[in-house]
Write a structure and sequence with these properties.
Blueprint (H helix, E strand, L loop, with lengths): L7 H10 L4 H8 L4 E5 L12 E7 L2 E7 L3 E8 L4 E2 L12 E4 L3 E7 H10 L1 H27 L2 H17 L8 E3 L4 H8 L3 H13 L3 E3 L3 E4 L2 H7 L21 H6 L1
């Protein structure tokens, strides 16, 4: 498959962790993706036709509104991630999806995704595996919000972002473009914007990161990972591909 296509980063990541045939890759390439630019701060409004969203460039997040005017970011999506996969089996998701800074996204109808997965057990297993990784990320976020101090939360978030970006060929030198506001950082880490500003300043003072309005460079990965108590085991991005396993769901349900 050619690089530079809307699906390229998704394909690259799946190909690292699953044994995909040329036919599998062709099925992925033929998905009917509708690409569009989304401005910072704009909601990604669901279409009339049920669909999920592939992040092509930039970042997106899922969030919940808590009380009046307060937001908690509950999930992050980097290039190559698909947001809204749960809607394939659980219609009516209550997550609010929006970009973090300007982003390029591609809409994908659930029907087309379901047909592709029906035709390829390997792709079905690969997407199933991605859903388990998303659950592992959510558990790690819960641990951060519940037990880590603010400095450790932000450090952990940065480390996670770098590993996830590296898995799709971005941030190879621990440097990447990030058009987040301090409120975005606050909403992801469950702290106030003022506290987020203090934490970022402290990371700079410790010479762990260089972070301006559009760019983040990690200067000391080991120290940052230690502060954030970060281990990438839960992300599972570098596991050797394994042959697909066929599951007879009808047989198991009958039991």
């Amino acid at each position: 498959m050619e690089s530079g296509r809307p699906y390229s980063r998704l394909l690259n990541r799946l190909d690292r962790t699953a044994v995909l045939t040329s036919a599998d890759k062709q099925l992925l390439a033929e998905l009917p993706l509708t690409v569009r630019n989304v401005a910072a701060g704009a909601a990604i409004v669901p279409a009339e036709e049920p669909q999920c969203i592939l992040v092509v460039n930039g970042f997106a997040c899922g969030s919940k509104r808590v009380g009046v005017g307060r937001r908690q970011i509950t999930s992050l999506f980097v290039p190559g991630d698909i947001a809204g996969l749960n809607g394939l089996l659980l219609p009516g998701s209550d997550d609010n999806l929006s970009p973090l800074g300007p982003a390029v996204i591609a809409s994908l109808p659930y029907q087309a995704l379901e047909e592709m997965l029906d035709h390829s057990p390997r792709l079905a297993q690969a997407f199933w595996r991605q859903s388990f990784i998303e659950a592992a990320i959510l558990r790690e976020w819960i641990a951060s919000l519940g037990r880590r101090e603010a400095l450790a939360r932000v450090a952990h978030l940065i480390c996670e972002l770098v590993v996830r970006l590296q898995a799709v060929g971005v941030a190879k030198d621990h440097s990447f473009t990030i058009c987040w506001t301090q409120m975005d950082v606050a909403d992801a880490c469950g702290i106030s914007a003022v506290h987020a500003n203090r934490v970022v300043q402290e990371l700079r003072r410790l010479e762990l990161v260089e972070w301006d309005a559009k760019h983040l460079q990690i200067r000391n990965w080991d120290a940052l990972a230690k502060i954030g108590e970060f281990s990438d085991d839960y992300l599972q991005h570098y596991v050797r591909p394994v042959p697909p396993v066929r599951y007879d769901f009808d047989r198991h349900l009958a039991c």
